[in-house]
Amino acid sequence: MKTQVSILFKGDTVSSTFVKLCSLTWFIKIFKKPQIAISIDGQPMQKMTASKEAYVLDLAPGQHQISMIDLDAESKARTKRFTGRFVGFFVGLGTGSLSNGAMLGKASGNLMEGKSIDQNNINFFLNDGDLMKISVKTDHNGCCKTKILK
After folding, report:
1. What is the three-class DSSP state of 25?
2. How far apart are CA 5 and CA 38, in angstroms?
3. Got the DSSP string for 67-99?
4. Least confident of 65-74, 77-86, 114-123
5. What is the pTM of this model?
6. Backbone angles phi, psi at 37, to 5 degrees
7. 108 vs 82: CA distance, rounded Å
8. Residue 82 and residue 106: Cα distance in Å, rounded?
9. Between the CA atoms of 16, 17, 19 and 24, what dihedral angle is there, to the nearest 10 degrees?
């Protein structure tokens, strides 16, 4: 019997789609499928694109580690920072002062920036003939949300 891991990488969540719509290049990003970089047991990173079909990989029985990084994380952080600065600037201008607008814009942008890159690690043990099913989604912060299905 084969020992396998099945990784279902789903498309964007509603919040990460909204972050794409707020970017300056939304017309390009909205049609682009999300990608993650994945490494199994310290092997070199490989790209995975969101798909309706699960990626099935053969592994040897024993202890394993899977690391995942959202490849669009830096772009998502930049978009959130720009949106915060834009909104903060106009709220500050509403007080009647250009300097208030500049200060509030910078503070709002820094507040909304959040994490830029987050790596998600999964550690698990497989016996001979096991099938591990994992579901992965990226969120608006650039993190990979994982759920072990079986």
Report:
1. coil
2. 13
3. EEEETTHHHHHHHHHHHHHHHHHHHHHTTT-HH
4. 114-123
5. 0.67
6. -105, 135
7. 9
8. 9
9. 140
